[in-house]
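Input for the complex:
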Amino acid sequence: AQKVTQTQTSISVMEKTTVTMDCVYETQDSSYFLFWYKQTASGEIVFLIRQDSYKKENATVGHYSLNFQKPKSSIGLIITATQIEDSAVYFCAMREHYNVLYFGSGTKLTVEP
Amino acid sequence: NAGVIQTPRHKVTGKGQEATLWCEPISGHSAVFWYRQTIVQGLEFLTYFRNQAPIDDSGMPKERFSAQMPNQSHSTLKIQSTQPQDSAVYLCASSLDRLGGRVSYEQYFGPGTRLTVL
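Predicted:
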């Protein structure tokens, strides 16, 4: 069974708007960690933001923020004021008690001018 | 501050040949991970080292694949008798590490090695 599921295959938005990407996960652990990564057209995978399961506050870094809904096992990524250079594939990932990351299948974001 | 370095960036092998992929983690990072990315399977975990010791190789195909970390500055992934289905981008990542607890560290990825098996 997939531990991390991203149902949105691709999203297209206009520049300067806000976009939300969905991610749900499965775990039996009481403590776990959630991450979002971005893969650029060149293939580079870049860490964006993280959420620790025991923290109630949603994480925010720059124009990235998270919508963490623990009862729903959901961790959405919100990008505000999108820019052309935000166009990329976005991966949600989860770490349980080991350091291994389980990745979702990715959501391709296209930001149009 | 150099990131994770992977060499070569591209490798083409003939079916049945051996391929060795190299990774140099970020200095000071004690955990090293190998992943494989394909269109069909996405990003898959292969194996993980902590302080050069193998911790989890549950993602490694049992035959033909092996990984080592002879010192803290490099790790290798070796594929013997390569097959066309081994064609993929192989990614190395490193992170700080700490056993258990409410601590986790982000993994930082290298640029990957694109392996093509003809």
